[in-house]
Amino acid sequence: MVDPHWLAEMGPMFFSIKTDLNKSKADID
């Protein structure tokens, strides 16, 4: 079970990191 507080803290950062990785892959392609 994921702690709601942890999700609130880390969720947006994790999502932004994934988005940045996807952007990087698109730039490379």
Outline the structure in words.
Helix content is 86%, strand content 0%. The longest helix has 25 residues. It is rod-shaped and about 35 Å long. It starts with a helix and ends with a helix.
Overall body shape:
rod-shaped
Question: How far from one another are the termini?
Answer: 37 Å
The proportion of residues in beta strands is under 5%
Q: Unreliable runs, pLDDT <50, ≥5 residues?
A: none
Average residue-wise pLDDT:
83
Helix/strand order, N-terminal first: H
Largest β-sheet summary: none
Q: How do the strands and helices of this protein lay out in sequence?
A:
Blueprint: H1 4-28
Keyword list:
single chain; mainly alpha; 29 residues; rod-shaped
Brief overview, please?
The chain is an all-alpha fold and 29 residues long. The chain has 1 helix and no strands.
